[in-house]
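Researcher: Go.
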Amino acid sequence: MPRSAHRQRPEATPYVDLTRAEWSALRDKTPLPLSAAEVEQLRGLGDVIDLDEVRDIYLPLSRLLNLYVGATDGLRSALNTFLGEQGSQSGTPFVIGVAGSVAVGKSTVARLLRALLSRWPEHPRVELVTTDGFLLPTEELQKRGLMSRKGFPESYDRRALTRFVADIKAGKSEVTAPVYSHLIYDIVPGEKLTVRRPDILIVEGLNVLQPALPGKDGRTRVGLADYFDFSVYVDARTEDIERWYLHRFKRLRETAFQDPSSYFRKYTQVSEEESLDYARTMWRTINKPNLVENIAPTRGRATLIVRKGPDHKVQRLRLRKL
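Model: Structure:
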């Protein structure tokens, strides 16, 4: 018997695991439509990203998503053929969820995807909505004793968020969402974001992959992620995310927190070490527990897991098989 017959076959998994180099090769001949200046504008504070990262990681992802959108359109045509005139449906938006911890860089990923996907001629109208707009207002959080749980699933109006995406998916001509301001750390009264039948909707937030909770009657409800056609989880070691979080807080203290209207301006009035002590407490008591208890457990529900190394560069990717 040949020696090769004794080799163990790789363990079967529901994922395709790819190194950075293997993933990068999948971009084929997709051209890079963004300049260095545009990437800089899209980059989040403290995030490390350049044209090489966009070329190696996000161009292949935009190509994959373009294939998914095309395949979904083909499936919809097949369904219309099956239903005939009785249930023929026009195109509804392709919905992408982007999840991950505070400070892991998911907002940058979402903005990059929006910029890249809108350059494909098949779907030029791409909208991005963050779940921050569906946080309960500060007054309501205080009334419920949830200020120290801000960002946890219970701090959101989950019913309104799910209804918003359901209406988009249903093809409604116009859907509105509340607007959140990181400057005042609250919902902006009277301000609304209007979304009008996009080709693609990207929904970015901490808990977008959370399964639906049973209702008071014990029945299982439809969750936000049930409306996603594709989802991305941005992953990294907890220790690295904490370091990025503290670095970002320090940078914000030097910039946005200086605004007289900033909720966090008080942390510019004390020493840097005192302000960082506060940030460490926030991480230890709010952000890390939320990551460990609520966010990280949803990682396995994502279509694609993007794993970052200590330098913010993507090292590996795990794609769910069809």
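Model: The chain has a mean pLDDT of 90.
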